[in-house]
DNA sequence: GCGGCAATGTTAACACTGTAAACATTGGCG
DNA sequence: CGCCAATGTTTACAGTGTTAACATTGCCGC
């Protein structure tokens, strides 16, 4: 069981063609079912049908690959949030729409953590990481990173008159803290055992807390 | 630099005496300056002045050692919270005291994360972990785990009439989510660069949010 | 007291990892 | 068309977790 993809079509050309992309894809696959610790250089090269050292032509070291995978995972998170936003019904009440907007961001965040716990863990694994929360590599199809999607929702809340402008600054950290913490509890913590409906319930309550407390 | 403790007093007896404890201590030291990934069996045995395989007489595998270290780290977190509680001035206002009680738990939590980021990361690293949030091994000098200290604070809040009893159930998850998330942002996230005073400020604001939103 | 057993450590080995240096191949540019 | 830079391979080394076979010795029952 050392090789999940024993004999890949075993390319005939000497050059691979798009090894960088192949390694990233393999790494993402490894992360999806194994978390950050499972993204291993040699296994990635194996799946790409290439010798171990070949990876060093495209990534400085294992850490560099892991960070690329991590960015891809954050991009997936951004898409999950976007999914939640897309399902938002068109509302005529501006204020209610803004509130729903913020809630959808939180709900999408937690939903992704539950659907892809290993990718979620990977997205937030390496230190020196979250710092660049706005790197384009972390963006989803909307072109925005999870952090930016959250900020947009908060801005919307202000413009809708639902959040006093003087409380806007820093609010993203409060909201993010709450949602991120909940996501962690939901996949690794005491909330792990709960079913989807219950998780949704706790999430709603937490979003209430954020809304009232912000 | 493969061995930080080159020639330990190199015991004369064949038996070590308390290898289990020595390994755990070494593991904790490794975790303190290197995080969960740095707690490595062979290095721990080296520091204990013992051969690599000896560890297997006391821990099933590396994971088992890591989990023991993790419990110890949580115990440290419990003590940090207790420190914050101990510094609480004796108040005569029951309600204010209960509010301060909860805030102290949150503040101690974040303070520990900032003071010992690697231990904090270790405390919450292995999956299958937070589940047993009440294991005695995770308790601090008060005999309570971080989770139990939080619950006690919330109970106090109810008894002081500051939290409606019907909103008590599950409140621990909301409060924990917020504080835990903030702690993560403060050590690995965008809040990493902030100074102690600024972190205290954000923490206060977050605790306001929790208090108003609970 | 003492003999043997079970607990504890040691040695040696295996399979795996990341990484570097020297070498091989080849696409494309002058 | 020939050469060079980019890309991939081979080989090697140090480090890791883990196991099996062996060594030592504290302690418990006779």
Set out the fold topology.
The structure is a homodimer of 214-residue chains.
Chain A lengths: L18 H14 L8 H8 L13 H25 L7 H22 L1 H7 L22 H14 L11 H17 L8 H18 L1
Helix pairs in contact in A: 1-2, 1-3, 3-4, 3-5, 4-5, 4-6, 4-7, 4-8, 6-7, 7-8
The first copy, chain A, binds a DNA duplex (30 and 30 nucleotides) through helix 2.
Short characterization:
The structure is a homodimer of 214-residue chains. Chain A is mostly helical and 214 residues long.
Structure description:
Two copies of one chain form a homodimer. With 214 residues, chain A is mostly helical. Chain A has two domains: 44 residues, Homeodomain-like (Arc Repressor Mutant, subunit A, Orthogonal Bundle), CATH 1.10.10; 141 residues, Tetracycline Repressor, domain 2 (Orthogonal Bundle), CATH 1.10.357. In chain A, 58% of the residues lie in helices and 0% in strands. Chain A is built from eight helices and no strands. In chain A, helix 1 crosses helix 3 and helix 4 packs parallel to helix 7. The longest helix of chain A has 25 residues. Chain A binds a DNA duplex (30 and 30 nucleotides) through helix 2.
Helix content of chain A: 55-70%
The tally of domains of chain A stands at 2
First-last Cα distance of chain A: 51 Å
| Rg of chain A, Cα atoms, Å | 20 Å
Average pLDDT score of chain A:
92
CATH topology (fold) name of the largest domain in chain A? Tetracycline Repressor, domain 2
Greatest interface by residues involved: A-B, 38 and 39 residues
| Topology, number of strands of chain A | 0
């Amino acid at each position: 069981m050392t090789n999940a993809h024993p004999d890949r079509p075993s390319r005939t050309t000497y050059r691979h063609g798009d090894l960088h992309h192949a390694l990233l894809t393999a790494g993402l696959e490894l992360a999806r079912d194994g978390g950050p610790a499972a993204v291993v250089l040699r296994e990635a090269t194996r799946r790409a049908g290439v010798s171990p050292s070949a990876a060093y032509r495209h990534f400085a070291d294992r850490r560099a690959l892991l960070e690329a995978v991590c960015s891809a995972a954050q991009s997936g998170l951004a898409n999950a949030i976007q999914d939640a936003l897309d399902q938002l019904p068109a509302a005529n009440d501006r204020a209610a729409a803004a509130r729903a907007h913020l809630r959808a961001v939180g709900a999408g965040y937690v939903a992704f953590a539950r659907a892809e716990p290993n990718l979620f863990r990977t997205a937030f694994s390496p230190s020196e990481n979250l710092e660049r929360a706005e790197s384009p590599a972390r963006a989803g199809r909307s072109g925005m990173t999870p952090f930016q999607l959250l900020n947009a929702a908060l801005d919307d809340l202000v413009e809708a008159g639902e959040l006093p402008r003087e409380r806007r600054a820093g609010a993203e950290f409060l909201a993010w803290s709450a949602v991120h913490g909940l996501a962690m509890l939901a996949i690794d913590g005491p909330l792990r055992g709960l079913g989807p409906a219950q998780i949704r319930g706790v999430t709603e309550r937490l979003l209430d807390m954020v809304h009232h407390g912000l």
